[in-house]
Design goal:
By secondary structure, the chain is α+β, with helices and mostly antiparallel strands. It contains 4 helices and 12 strands, in the order E-E-H-E-E-E-H-E-E-H-E-E-E-E-H-E. It has helices at 39-57, 117-132, 177-187, 245-250; strands at residues 23-24, 27-28, 80-87, 93-99, 102-108, 147-154, 161-167, 191-198, 210-216, 220-224, 230-234, 280-283. The strands form 3 sheets. A 7-stranded mixed β-sheet has the order 5-4-3-6-7-8-9. Strand 7 (161-167), helix 3 and strand 8 form a beta-alpha-beta unit. The radius of gyration is 20 Å and the shape is globular. It starts with 22 loop residues before the first strand and ends in an 11-residue tail after the last strand.
Length: 294
């Protein structure tokens, strides 16, 4: 059985404890809850979790568990981050992650070390844009407000950027979608696509009943090196591609077969929420195939 606990205080610092690096206004980044544990110790615990899942849940035995492949970079490796809009304690628009254990509050972020400098800059620019137009965050309890989520995906090899804005029904809010898209693409010339999604439901999700391509191309490209440098194209609906682009490359063997991804997120070969095989196509180096091959 598992249980959750919260820290009331630290009496004595353990040898595996390290100083947190990703901190927002004195609060640990909700997206990096393990960061105060030394990376080597994280790998040991995560390997143990994989073994436990295979043996206890999967009822497997007699297998050999390969060593964990360490990350080349433990910071600024994410190629996709999904942020939530909220209202700060001073009433200003916040854009960041939900506070751990509290879906009502959003921790505002200036520099998240999970994201690249460019991804952070895009998020901060978009927050400033909406602050300047006095648009409010959606409130799930009252059902009022406009802004819900922002998804920023960055092709670490292709250098393409895709932005998805998720709102509630914009009727009567004064939101100008074309003005928003123009502001973003004029500020960031590497943005290849901007999608506006309308989610009028109560659940927080980056999918909705309306997906409007405001600018650029529908398909987001990433150069995945594990298959002879193939270009993989992802539809705007496929936002669950492996969030660590390096892990996609390193997690496959020379023939392109998946070796394993027990510790990381969704691997580059499968589709979970937000998309499936129909949302992925690939081509040989030189650009999109356009033929829809999967």
């Amino acid at each position: 059985n598992d249980a959750e606990a919260r820290t009331l205080g630290v009496l004595e610092v353990g040898p595996e404890r390290v100083e947190a690096e990703c901190v927002h206004s004195g609060e640990l980044c909700p997206g990096a809850p393990w960061q105060e544990l030394a990376y080597d110790e994280q790998l040991k615990i995560k390997a143990g979790q994989v073994r436990d899942s295979l043996e206890r849940i999967g009822s497997l035995e007699g297998f050999e568990l390969e060593p964990v492949i360490q990350a080349d970079e433990i910071w600024r490796y994410r190629n996709k981050l999904e942020y939530s809009f909220g209202t700060g304690s001073d009433g200003s628009l916040a854009l960041g992650f939900h506070r751990r254990g509290n879906w009502r509050e959003v921790v505002d972020i200036e520099d998240c070390l999970l994201a690249s400098e460019l991804s952070n800059e895009i998020r901060n620019f978009i927050r400033g844009h909406f602050q300047g137009h006095s648009l409010e965050a959606y409130d799930r309890e009252s059902g009022t407000g406009l802004l819900r989520n922002l998804v920023v995906r960055e092709g670490r090899n292709s250098r393409q950027i895709h932005v998805r804005l998720v709102t509630s029904d914009a009727s009567g809010t004064g939101f100008n979608a074309d003005q928003f898209a123009t502001a973003v693409r004029e500020r960031f010339d590497t943005v290849s696509g901007i999608v506006w999604t309308v989610n009028s439901g109560s659940a927080e999700a980056s999918q909705g009943e309306l997906n409007d391509l405001l600018y650029g191309v529908e398909w987001f490209e990433e150069l995945v090196l594990f298959v002879l440098g193939e270009v993989v194209e992802l539809s705007e609906g496929f936002f669950r591609f492996e969030t660590d682009g390096v892990a996609v490359d390193r997690g496959h063997d020379a023939d392109g077969a998946l070796v394993g991804d027990g510790v990381g997120g969704v691997d580059g070969s499968s589709g979970e929420e937000g998309g499936g095989a129909e949302d992925v196509r690939h081509s040989l180096p030189g650009g999109p195939s356009g033929d829809g091959r999967k």
